[in-house]
């Protein structure tokens, strides 16, 4: 049985065989951006840094050039218009067909047409998806055959009907209830993260207060996309929480603050290699 | 009572509690750019490196894409037209409403419509603001309920009616008089910086001649925005001057010149962590 | 006689005389991009990092600005339209006239007009060229007086009529047959790379599973362009495979994954200097 | 008397007094770009890395955004049209009025209208200028009251009427004759650089064969602009040649090739600080 707390042992699930081919370690598709530019770029780069072989971003055209500009390693496609909307759904589903994981949410914003598009995507999609940020609140309103990892912070968790709690065990119980109701996996972010599908529950204690800076949630979504490509939902979310927190701890090691989300892109490989802060 | 000279002890004010949430350490809004592009990008990145949780830039559309291109960690919004002008004031005030500190000035230029917009902003805004560069000279002509830190160099200080002086004590006295008249806090930049609200006065001795390079003032404005989010004006300005100078000293340590303002973005975390040059 | 396996000794071919002039170590022209942006940028930068003196990129205008944005060291020219097509052939041939090596393929995509343009280029060009990615499948359908190094992965190799094999020796025999038929040099990528012109065969054992990440093939194409500028096809391809694999090994040394193709740009100089992972 | 060979002692000329103000160490204006994008960006950044306080670039609009994108530390202004031409001359002269040094040449190209504009600039300008690349050949055809440092490679030197020579002393004599004829200072680039105004002659021996890569000439032009801001022409050119070569030596130290011109931006501060390769 898995231990309650995440730890370095969880990383053993990620070993790569020596006869691997391009794409074996995951093709991740980030659908995000529009009102925000940095979020999908952070998520996609984090997916690569956490071991995905290919990271593609579908994003509205006005921000596509800038997302591409952050890295030669990304594949970026622009969609017409200033935000994701229902007219994009068929294109996104087509692009998702030869991908391992869809990451839905980073930088999408909460405009009504965007939320409608997210709902239609979830109803039609049957693969694996990480659902983050403004896309989270759409989940409880739709039926989906997809296998989801949701990554809410506490406010978003309460939006899903989750009850707030006084202590870590309370949050875990409450998260387990919501996960069971949805039939999906939750990665509830907090000082200690709770990972649960209602049946199995894991607690992650890596991470630090410097990670309150904007963009760390986008990094976590990207890392989760990478781990979900090769693992089941609960271990994928547990490893992702552990890795992202450890990357933040490594980045913060010699600091009293001033941590940026993009710093985690630099420390993720060390975290993946088992380094301890 | 606070000591006269800034020092490492000032950094203790910046400790982060372990149960922090996103945004607890400050949401900073930079209003700048138009004739200049790098200035608002430096200020916003410096705010994050000094511990702010979110840095948003409002800047004219022709430079917005480039400001965003410098960092995935920034949130950038373009305003129509080539420079900030009165038509933007309501949008800026709306954006400032859920921010902790407004940084007004970096790269704005001194065009008449821009100065008019700055005046209208200061008259309507009631929160905390750092006022830098070409925005400084507008302050003496308007009534404002905002709490301001002004960051003039000596030329800008004289534009505020400040008398030049022969030595550090003279500058301190002269700065105290201007600060008292304005009812605001001054961070007067020089070989030694003077921080004063007319009542309390601090002197900062970090920094070096390599910091005469362009852009270091933008970095200081950004750092001040971050510290002002959680501290009162005089300690905020004192810590900001200390940190920025120390970041410059750390960057210059092994050099005889060739320091860039953007180098300080790299050394600010070490400065924040208490490292000494 | 050259040894069967590539090794550090191969690097001795790359020594630079002290009275060298600009361009002595190769002018490389990358023709790529359109549907993809990062690929030609990676190839061109890799050529410079492997010792080429000048790297020029001809790429469709919509991606030209972004390719340039990745590095001040590249010369980038935009061609009208969204992808390479027959109307560009005369411009490309003209540009190729004062270059040492043409790199044809990175990020071109497989659209019919692009394949037609590649065919026309190969028929008219008489110099040295590295042919990669979607351009590879065009080679068997055209007559060319050019001297080519083809860099197929196994799928592309089978598209050239190559038979798949059970072990390394089988792949080498099969690759030698295809190379002899084409009258060109093959660099067949795999866990162990096979370099052969049908007569001489070399095997390269550097590289690791982390290099399944997207973009490493573009880096290899660029490195091959640089080595081909001063060496004959088989030694050029052998050294390029060795260097790129070693750059990947150096980048992966302290990691369990998370390798990006762009990381190799940073480690190529160490590989070139003879460092061992 | 100055020694014949440049050396670390030359760096003592560059010491900064502690009461310096912004701009004391030079305002440098780069006029370049159009057909090329990276060249003016390299020159301007090199000027800052060599100690200039402000670096402004005037460049045709189609490349202005990309030049700016390389660094927050640059001030970039776009000029209408695809290349520098006579209609820009008055704007450039106006911008040059409050600058210390004009750098004319990097990436300008050799189109007739550009050469005409360079001629008009040289005839009207009376300050200090570094003349590089395609701008060099214009100098012998115009009358100018400006104080110039020309930075030709051997081909450009012969275009100025310089005779080629068999050895270093021959080049020095030949360069001295051209410099005396022009009444200007020459920095003749080669395995050993010759710096001469026809009266005084210095030889620089730093640098290495890896510096045959494209863009190193742009870096040298930028460094010369920075040193010329505070020094006379011959010592300025001598220090610039020494620094740039030393920056190249420091960058090449652990390499067998793969040096990029942009690498020198990173090592210039160490060179300036007196480090030896």
Explain the overall architecture.
The structure is a homotetramer of 277-residue chains. With 277 residues, chain A is α/β, with parallel strands linked by helices. The first copy, chain A, has ten helices and nine strands. The longest helix of chain A is centred in the C-terminal third of the chain and has 20 residues, at 233-252. The radius of gyration of chain A is 17 Å and the shape is globular. Chains in contact: A-B, A-C, B-D, C-D. The interface between B and D is medium-sized, with 29 and 36 residues.
What's this, in brief?
The first copy, chain A, has ten helices and nine strands.
Give the secondary structure arrangement, pairings included.
The structure is a homotetramer of 277-residue chains.
Chain A: E1 27-31, H1 38-49, E2 54-60, H2 61-69, E3 75-79, H3 89-96, E4 101-104, H4 112-124, E5 128-131, H5 136-139, E6 147-150, H6 154-159, H7 168-182, E7 185-188, E8 193-196, E9 201-204, H8 216-228, H9 233-252, H10 263-272
Parallel strand pairs in A: 1-2, 1-4, 2-3, 4-5, 5-6, 6-7
Antiparallel strand pairs in A: 7-8, 8-9
Helix pairs in contact in A: 1-8, 1-10, 3-4, 8-9, 9-10
């Amino acid at each position: 049985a898995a231990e309650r707390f995440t730890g370095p042992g969880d990383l053993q699930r990620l070993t790569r065989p020596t006869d691997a081919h391009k794409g074996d370690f995951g093709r991740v598709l980030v659908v995000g951006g529009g009102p925000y530019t940095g979020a999908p770029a952070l998520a996609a780069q984090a997916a690569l840094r956490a071991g995905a072989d290919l990271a593609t971003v579908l994003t509205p055209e006005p921000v596509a050039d800038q997302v591409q500009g952050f890295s030669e390693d990304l594949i970026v496609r622009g969609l017409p218009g200033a935000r994701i909307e229902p007219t994009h759904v068929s294109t996104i589903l087509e692009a998702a067909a030869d991908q391992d994981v869809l990451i839905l949410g980073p930088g999408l914003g909460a405009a009504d047409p965007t939320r409608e598009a997210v709902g239609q995507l979830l109803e039609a999609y049957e693969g694996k998806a990480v659902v983050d940020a403004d896309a989270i609140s759409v989940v409880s309103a739709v039926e989906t055959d997809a296998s989801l990892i949701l990554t809410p912070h506490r406010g978003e968790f309460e939006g899903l009907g989750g009850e707030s709690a006084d202590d870590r065990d309370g949050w875990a119980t409450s998260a387990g209830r919501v996960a069971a109701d949805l039939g999906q996996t939750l990665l509830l972010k907090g000082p200690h993260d709770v990972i649960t599908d209602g049946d199995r529950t894991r607690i992650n204690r890596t991470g630090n207060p410097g990670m309150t800076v904007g963009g760390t949630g986008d990094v976590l979504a990207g890392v989760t996309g990478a781990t979900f490509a090769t693992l089941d939902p609960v271990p994928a979310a547990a490893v992702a929480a552990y890795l992202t927190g450890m990357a933040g701890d490594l980045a913060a090691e010699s600091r009293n603050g001033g941590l940026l989300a993009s710093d985690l892109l630099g420390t993720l490989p060390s975290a993946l290699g088992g380094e301890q802060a």
